[in-house]
Amino acid sequence: MKRQRRWTIFLLAVLIGSLLLAGYLNSGGRTTKNSTANDETKPIWDFQYAPPITITTAIVDENRPNAFKPGESLTDNVHTRWMEVNLGIITKFDWIVSKFEDADTKIRLALAVNGKLPDTFGAGGDILKDLLKADKLLPLNEAIEKFAHPKLKEALEKYAYTMTEVTKDGKIYGLPRFNVGDEGTVMWIRKDWLEKLSLKPPTTIIELENVLKAFSEQDPNGNGKDDEVGLAVPLKEGPWNWMGQTDAIAGAFSKQMLSTIDINMFWNEDENGSLVYGAVHPDAKKYLETMASWMAKGYMDKNAGMKDPSNASELAVKGKAGVIFGPFWMGAWPLGDTVKVDPKAKWQAYPLPAGPNGLKGKAQKPLYGIYTVFSKDFNHIEAWFAYYNKLLANNLGPEDPYFDPRFEKGFHEGYDYVIKDDKVITVNFEAEGVPTNEWPLADGSSMDMRWMLFPLTGGAPALPYMNADALKKLLENSDAEVLTPIEQGIKGLNSAQRMAAGVAISEQELEIPNRYHGPLTDGMEKHGVFLQKLATESYLSIIYGEKPLSYFDEFVAQFYKYGGDEITKEVNHWYKDNKQ
């Protein structure tokens, strides 16, 4: 579950930007003077700490291909050196671990022996609760008011519910790591298969079932084998996921969104205005009935119950499935790789199918994951915001006062970009004629700069729906002048992605949010893992026909008996006090 709460951490946030004044005050009331010139004539992005200050952090380093050049590392690379020389900020790692569980262990050990915590790190769930109970975190109210980028403050106000888990006695003890959130589900279909079988794009669940039947039975890949299914779906982790999700199927029958692998979501209002865990709401039967029918008819992979999103997408990429639900960016990866198997393959995104009563819906991707928190003993909160603001503003473009013009072309020449004939080149170095000795990496691939840029911020600073305006602008006029890095990123999308993004934006009002944004309750800690396992296994047993649809009622009874009733009371107690 802890791992699941961190999942949102990936995917698509664009790069970032910029700064602050050098200062005197931190939100804990302590003063720390630096010899940075407090020159009001200087632009706000232009700051430097002298002598340099050190900010400690920690990181989970699971895998970082293409992140560094030979001889460079997390602790010593072009960006750490640039920060020390130009900003006067030295990044030091208190620990580097390979698994999230190991990071949790480090924090728990520090709490157990009253040991030192990093100046800044990520926390959520029960670890966050323990830190708050132990009074180990720095209150941020004053720092946010004085030092935060206006766009960040605006987002914190607009999405105030994201702060409830880190607010105690009126004080804020962490910053949500926002996701862009504009990756809501679209329906991806092999358009060339539709055309080959003389089918129209489905607009309803019934029409979609007819398409799935044809894709499963009429050999659309043309290899003479019965090796296709209609729908590629990962059932190992339940109805809601980051790719291959089936939230749109649930949304065709109900406004109750479903998740079985995270007890924190989805909690939806029932007809009385109380919160109910969507996976046990009676409407879930309609979803399960549909999925069980499709499985029995062979419209889905019989091994779907063992597949995660990446595994499921492989089925689509290999030409063995013709429909998959997911975000707009799938038009490049992984679906773009289908042409390696079938050069004529063409995936296209379509609006979601409507249910029997015309209902359409999809899950709102969580707008935040875990939190960035700060040790109570941290003395340089203004410096952290200065760096965060600089990165955030890099998304927003040169008009933002925190934008650092030194990053106008990119972060570091020879790393995330090269210059050839006065042209900035970020990808396809060989095709662009860049000499091999000037490629960022010896194999010509692009560098993954996240590991250099974001150790202190816990990921690329992003704001909810910050890509929306750029998407709309370039969808209306693909030749419009590109003014910001976000617009440049949108401009770089392939045609399938841009079309899919347009579909996603047009159906944004269909998104159904999770209504519970509180802390991990005591009941969740005691019963959450068991209930998640119970829900996922019960759903699979019904979908595979091992249990009849009527078993759903028995599952619901078990859910409430073995902790669900306690959790539901806790969640609704929180909702009564925090409903917005």
From TrEMBL:
Keywords: Signal. It comes from the Bacteria. SUPFAM superfamilies: Periplasmic binding protein-like II. InterPro entries: Bact_solute-bd_prot1. This is Putative aldouronate transport system substrate-binding protein. It comes from Paenibacillus algorifonticola.
